[in-house]
């Protein structure tokens, strides 16, 4: 299992947190996403070689938040 941290701007409450978590976990190959509102970081656990991080960022963008 590989891990990556993506910084995301625009999340302000638990609603945002859940939306981003669900969107990221819906990406094929992602096992788990933990969203930290304070640090604005999304920690992703995924199957190595099966996930393109650009796809994850695109999924985040589709929910209306801005991955950096
Ligand atoms: Cu919110």
Describe the structure.
The protein is of the alpha+beta class and 68 residues long. It has two helices and four strands, in the order E-H-E-E-H-E. It has one domain (2-67): Alpha-Beta Plaits. Helices cover 32% and strands 34% of the residues. A hairpin with a 4-residue loop joins strand 2 (30-36) and strand 3 (41-46). The protein is globular. The model has no long low-confidence stretch (mean pLDDT 97). Copper (II) ion is lined by residues 12-13, 15-16. The site of copper (II) ion has 4 residues, from helix 1.
Reconstruct the topology from this structure.
Elements: E1 2-9, H1 14-25, E2 30-36, E3 41-46, H2 53-62, E4 66-67
Antiparallel strand pairs: 1-3, 1-4, 2-3
The structure holds copper (II) ion.
Residues 12-13, 15-16 line the site of copper (II) ion.
EC number: 3.6.3.3, 3.6.3.4, 3.6.3.5
InterPro entries: Heavy-metal-associated_CS (IPR017969), HMA_Cu_ion-bd (IPR006122), HMA_dom (IPR006121), HMA_dom_sf (IPR036163), MerP/CopZ (IPR001802)
Domain HMA: 2-68
């Amino acid at each position: 299992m590989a891990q990556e941290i993506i910084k995301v701007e625009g999340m302000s409450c638990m609603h945002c947190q859940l939306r981003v978590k669900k969107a990221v976990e819906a990406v094929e190959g992602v096992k788990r996403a933990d969203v930290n509102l304070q640090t604005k970081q999304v920690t992703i656990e995924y199957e190595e070689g099966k996930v393109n991080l650009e796809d994850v960022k695109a999924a985040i963008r589709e929910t209306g938040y801005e991955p950096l």
